[in-house]
User: What shape does this take?
Amino acid sequence: MLGLPKSTEIFKPLPKKAVFAKFKPKTGDRKLFDEQISRLAIVSEISPQTVNIAEGTDVSVVYVILVMLKTAGCDKRNFTLLSKLIDQRMLFALKFKGTMQLAVYRAGRVLVSEGKPIDDWKLNLIGLDLGVVWENIIAQVGGFDLAEGKSLDEMIITKERCEKLVKQITALEKRAMEERQPRRKWELAEKVRQLKNQLEGEMQNE
Assistant: This one.
């Protein structure tokens, strides 16, 4: 899976009942998780024993978790929950029919990739130790360029701000088009202009 070396392949089911019994999530979290996720399994172990890459300062192993979805989309709260409950570096491979997305938890946020046909995914293990490899995995999921020399966490936070601004701009533009009162329409257009300027500044800092 994901073009990883065959030596990394394992298969260890993670029964939802066992996860719930061990970590005892809140009723609402458990309900959401159960509604959207069918099954979980560890399908790859990226470690010095499987890929001949040294441990990092704080990363000794990365697990790939196959997540079989019941629905086309999956709430990010499910992966925040798993990441907080299980103290491991985990890459989630979200499978729905013939499509897969990748997700990771970093800087208090869940990053989710675009969806691709399963066989199109090729994950590159880049780095001399697993700490660097893990950062590069996150960069691949989030579409970041670490060569720019900026902090990964900083890029994640900036990207989130940009996404929020885009949503605000889209909503205000729709309201401006529907507004009939000239003065209110102008006010909305001015707000859109300000947000676009703010977005341009954020994108320059990405």
In short: Helices lie at 16-23, 27-36, 48-51, 77-85, 130-142, 152-178, 182-204. The beta strands are 9-13, 37-46, 62-69, 89-96, 99-106, 109-112, 116-117.
